[in-house]
Amino acid sequence: MENEDKSYLNCVHCGKCLPVCPTYNIGLNEFFSPRGRIRIISAFNDRVLPLKASKVKETVSACLLCERCVKICPNNVETGSLIINEKTRLNRFKGNKLSFDRIALTVLKNKRKVLLRSALELLNMPIIERLKKRYTPKPDEKPFIGIEDLYFKSKNGNDLKPVGYFSGCVFDSIYSGISVDTVSSLVENGVSVFVPQMQGCCGLPFISSGDIGSFKDLALNNANAFKNKDIDHIITSCASCSYSINNLYPLYFNKNDEGYGEIMNFSKKLLNIWSFFKILEKKGIDMIKMGRLKEETDAVFHIPCHLLNSPGFQPSSYNEMLIGEAGFIADKINGLKLKSLKHNYCCGNGGMFNIRHYGLSKKITGRKFEEIKEASPQTILTSCSGCIFSLSDQKGILKEKQVMPVDHLISIYARSLRNLKD
Question: Which residues span the domain enclosing 46?
Fold first, then answer.
């Protein structure tokens, strides 16, 4: 068994995890709490209680892997690892091959990236949309990556070393404009960018589904895409991708695995876009360009559960204290006013969780919007593909005329730089 973490034995059922668990807070059911899951899994595996495997599958399937419980646990219980390991053991995908989530994973894994866009276009057809009764994002006009590697040269020709860009599947095929804006923001600030064509999904939807084999295949593919390239940093603008590559790749690969060295090298080089901009700041305080919005905009920034600041980060402005390293770029946008969120609840996405447990996911999203409405912003900002997906699904939560736009902070920054040229 991969990464057989035993920290769950340290759980004393104190309940500190309960207030931060998104699924527990919808219905206050211990069956969907972190300590409840630990108890059920350990009792099942130790054969202490006569539990059916289907009941264990139900509780682990309904975990978003947000790891909010891990961050608050006084005994350092790694609930996320326990859940992933149990999903791998049970491997729910040996069941119905025609399930909606199975089809979604097949599309995500397919190397023909056009398949993801085609599936979404099909689901957005009026007749299908009426039948499925759930939100489906509409892809941007065209994908970011085509059939060849891409290279974007910096605008000012400085001596900064080029970086790689990892788009992930969503920011390539669905919200491709965010990839365009990410690369544009780097290029405008003097950084050349290399984008390999063969990269794909980071693998998070697969490992969170217990499909460790597909997770490893995708990781190896991504590592090979950047292999032997003379770059020190690989940038992503998706928090879930950085979580998967930085946190899960090292946990679920060992020295006996094919391409282990390349995968670890890839993992070490990958940074979220906010951490990289902080690196640029250290190279020269005046390096990062200021942009401006055409109109003053009040916004909230939803901090993704998987967005982590770099080690040793110390906030030096109000926006950095409010949202972490991403606040550095918010400081560079004249006309942007960030408002605070009381709790920064989970958005309810959780990768495949939104697909498998759509009703429960919508309730968690609804809870999120209660604090958003209290802040009364003009727009919602974030930096995760899954969060954008769930926060855009506002039907039944807001009235039609109250729809709030959802955007990536890097996109609003890119637009603010373009405004300087108008």
Answer: 7-90
